[in-house]
Amino acid sequence: MPTMPAIAQDLAAATAAPRTMPTPTDCIVEVDHLRKTFGTEAALKGVSLRIGAGERVALLGASGSGKSTLMRCLCGLETAESGRVQVFGDTLQADGRLGPDIRRLRRSIGVVFQQFNLVGRLPVMTNVLAGLAAETPLWRCLSGRFTLAQRTRALEALDTIGLASQAFQRASTLSGGQQQRAAIARVLVQGARLLLADEPVASLDPESTRRVMEQLTQLNRDAGMTLIVSLHHVALARRYCDRVIALRHGELVYDGPSRALTSEFLRELYGSAADELEAEDAAIGSVLPRHSHPTSLAPMPSQEARIEPLMEPLMEPLIEPVIGAHLDPLHHDLPGVRLATRAA
Ligand SMILES: Nc1ncnc2c1ncn2[C@@H]1O[C@H](COP(=O)(O)OP(=O)(O)OP(=O)(O)O)[C@@H](O)[C@H]1O
């Protein structure tokens, strides 16, 4: 029986139009020999990869293969014992230490988690404004006195993902899919250039899954955000991402076009969980469009016209203080967010 790497090599070689690896100049993520151990367990065993600007990459692998650990290392929420992560040409971490530019780099990295990381009792708008915490003076964050321009930006981001009319509702009143889209609006308002989405649809129904995946795809296409998304469903990876990186027991076992993935390889990758995943994939597949390109829609009123009726509450200077431990783990090291968390 062929080994896993052998199958992966065959797959990549058999692809009619192999994806060209990003050249050093358009590489925005470079990972070299990353190794991370928890106790005696190695979660990442010397992973190396390159991701180019504007790519849409799916991270696949069975439970425990190291996907979340890799994602957390890419944004500096986790430090690896050895190896290096460079983002936008600067060192994010090397040999267990975060680089000197970590705060600046984090501003350009948006992260979306499976659990949404919204504060349910705060309005959707406030949750989205938290994306601006890194660029806003502490006193403004603590008192909720965001500028009109910032509040308008947040409303526009919510409009872009179709949630403007829910802007002043408590986040807890939204459905799971809507909450995930609000988390995406927070990344949009942050102005991130790299979006890491760690199992963003794992707790969503098939229809919400489709919507969230399309929104992530649109951010990649329209806002030019590079997207790395970890997924359990191969059908989603095939539909929405051109490239797949697969991990198994902390090792990179495949890096190539998503269309080249075969059932044989996936059985190797997922082992005994393959049958269950195949059944779930069939359910998801039934609600996915045939093409990931958005279908043409009826003409919409301009964004200005759409959000104009919602502007009135924005004229009130106070929104809500940006508080809460779960708002945005990336910015927990900001003094404002720490203080606010303690005060909450
Ligand atoms: N904070 C931690 N403490 C101890 N072990 C951890 C920690 N985080 C991850 N691990 C271990 O590292 C390995 C990789 O975990 P990781 O969460 O990265 O996998 P995953 O592919 O994201 O899994 P899943 O798909 O189930 O989320 C697992 O064996 C896990 O138990």
UniProtKB/TrEMBL annotation:
Pfam families: ABC_tran. GO terms for molecular function: ATP binding. Keywords: ATP-binding, Cell membrane, Membrane, Nucleotide-binding, Translocase, Transport. It comes from the Bacteria. The keyword Translocase applies. Residues 29-274 form the ABC transporter domain. SMART domains: AAA. NCBIfam families: ABC_phnC. This is Phosphonate ABC transporter ATP-binding protein. The lineage of its organism: Bacteria, Pseudomonadati, Pseudomonadota, Betaproteobacteria, Burkholderiales. The gene is phnC.
